[in-house]
Design a protein that fits this description.
The protein has 71 residues and is mainly alpha-helical.
Length: 71
């Protein structure tokens, strides 16, 4: 597959996206797996819908800004 040379700005954006995904996934897993406080597991129920909200919001923004968007 072709190798793409990224500009510093795109590289930073990809890193931020990756870091955010890893962080949210880690927080979600922590809430699910931890055994100290059962109430923290309920935070996973809150974390997931919030994450989905922001994910779908960003997807919509990307689709609207896409040069391949059909009018």
């Amino acid at each position: 597959f072709p190798v793409t040379i990224l500009t510093p700005k795109k590289r930073l954006l990809r890193f931020k996206g990756w870091a955010l995904a890893v962080t949210v996934h880690g927080i979600y897993d922590f809430f699910i797996i931890q055994e100290i406080y059962d109430a923290l597991a309920l935070l996973a129920i809150v974390t997931l819908p919030i994450s989905l909200f922001f994910a779908f919001k960003r997807i919509r923004e990307g689709q609207e800004a896409s040069p391949f968007r059909k009018e």
